[in-house]
Fold this protein.
Amino acid sequence: MTLTFEGIVDRFPRTDLKRDLSSLSERGRANVERFVTLGDCAACEGTRLNPTALATTIGGHSIADWSRMEVIELIKRLEAIEDPVATPIADGVRIALGRIDAIGLGHLSLDRATISLSGGEAQRLKTVRHLGGSLIGMTLIFDEPSTGPHPRDVERLNALLRVLRPSTAVPGR
């Protein structure tokens, strides 16, 4: 009979490093933190981009600069792009960002960590993501999507859902 042992070199990253430390127990987190130092990379300053990506600019801004902008500001900057090659790309991004702004999340930036979002923000982003795709021939079931959010956000969600309604839908329903 042969026994196999995973070993600490493989097990530690799998069970402790490749997960959110806040999901660990207090004792487990303390054990991991003895071996791990969290911080921004000195080379990229926490942008998680290589030097080539950071050196590429559009309008004098790197992709990290664009990602740090709030969605509302980013939409305005994308509207100002007049390059024949870049305009169609900017328009597609602007439309997607417009959905995020329409649901009341225009204050977010693209470099914001997902874990830092409130429950309501995360829920609305998921809704926008699912509603932004191709929905032809699909049936969507929303299980109380308006439970919990602020009334103004419920109205924004309703407006987003109305856009999905087929043109053959009976008015008022």
Notes: Residues 69-164 form one domain. The first strand starts at residue 57 and ends at 58.
